[in-house]
Specification:
The chain starts with a helix and ends with a helix. Strand 1 and strand 2 form a beta hairpin. The chain is mainly alpha-helical and 286 residues long. Helix 7 packs antiparallel against helix 8. It folds into 2 domains: 68 residues, no CATH class; 206 residues, Orthogonal Bundle (Cytochrome p450), CATH 1.10.630.10. It is 60% helix and 3% strand. InterPro entries: Cyt_P450, Cyt_P450_E_grp-II, Cyt_P450_sf, Cytochrome_P450_Monoox. Belongs to the cytochrome P450 family.
């Protein structure tokens, strides 16, 4: 495999030990380095994160087309980065593959029907009004004319997703939410771990302060999701499908409701663990 990889052009290493680690960071200088790489290596190049971590970077459309056009059923996934997410997301649609991926994809498709998504427009508008009200309050209070939008937009997205997936009002745009803060922390920790190759092995990462924070945040997220799924499942079992559907008449069902009711061609439903993994996955992807 190494002999095949070495057929790709390799940019100059940062040094013999770190390889290309630390190059191409998310800064203006890092983006300029990546732009220079694309100009020099039109089709792609090989990076070494460490002497044992090859990273193949593809740039040209003709090089990328076979990968991007391949079915997700057979397309390769980033096993390294995705392994960092697995303790958090489990075997959801993002991380699964093969027959499991195909089955879950079929079961989740009805949840993204246009009529279902249209029912969520009111939720989108409600969450957006909260964001605009907050911005107006800052302006009225004599705050700075410039407004940093990344954090408010992230909270807007997570607030909306939590309503659509769990029917839960966290009010995270107005006050701190332990669950939302845990998701933001997990996202930050995963990216930071990716940039620190020495922390890629799980046994080392679990001993680090970041690893302990990751474990605590995972526990917070999993406890919230499991509680919602289990309570909803018990309610469905108590009421029965017909009464459950009648109770939702005139209002949209959330993502958890749709997954609880879905069945495959053999009449099998998703387990609570499957539903929790899909819910966690879509909160992350949001």
């Amino acid at each position: 495999t190494c002999r095949q990889l070495n057929k790709f052009p390799i940019p100059p290493w940062r040094n013999w030990l770190l390889g290309h680690t630390g190059m191409g960071q998310s800064t203006e200088q890092g983006l300029q380095q990546v732009d220079a790489l694309v100009a020099r290596y039109r089709h792609g190049c090989l990076w070494w994160g460490l002497p044992w971590l090859p990273i193949l970077r593809l740039f040209h459309p003709s090089t990328l087309r076979p990968l991007l056009s391949a079915s997700a059923f057979v397309a390769p996934k980033d096993e390294l980065f995705y392994s960092f997410l697995k303790p958090w997301l489990g075997e959801g649609l993002l991380l699964s593959h093969g027959q499991r991926w195909a089955r879950h994809r079929r079961l989740l498709t009805p949840a993204f029907h246009g009529d279902v998504l249209r029912d969520y427009l009111g939720i989108f508008n409600q969450s957006t009004h909260v964001l605009l009200w907050g911005a107006a309050a800052v302006e009225a209070g004599g705050g700075p004319v410039g407004l940093e939008v990344l954090q408010p937009l992230s909270l807007l997205t997570l607030d909306t997703l939590q309503k659509c997936i769990f029917s839960h009002e966290s009010h995270c745009q107005e006050r701190p939410s332990e669950y939302i803060q845990a998701i933001l922390e997990l996202s930050s920790l995963v990216v930071r771990r990716q940039l620190q190759p020495l922390l890629h092995p799980w046994w080392l990462y679990s001993l680090s302060s970041d690893g302990r924070r990751f474990a605590r945040a995972c526990a917070t997220v999993h406890a919230f999701t499991a509680d919602v799924v289990q309570r909803r499942h018990r309610a469905l079992a108590r009421l029965g499908h017909r009464a459950w559907l009648d109770g939702h008449r005139g209002r949209s069902m959330d993502f958890i409701d749709l997954l609880l009711l879905t069945k495959d061609e053999n009449g099998h439903t998703l387990s609570d663990e499957d539903i929790a993994a899909e819910a966690d996955t879509f909160m992350f992807e949001g």
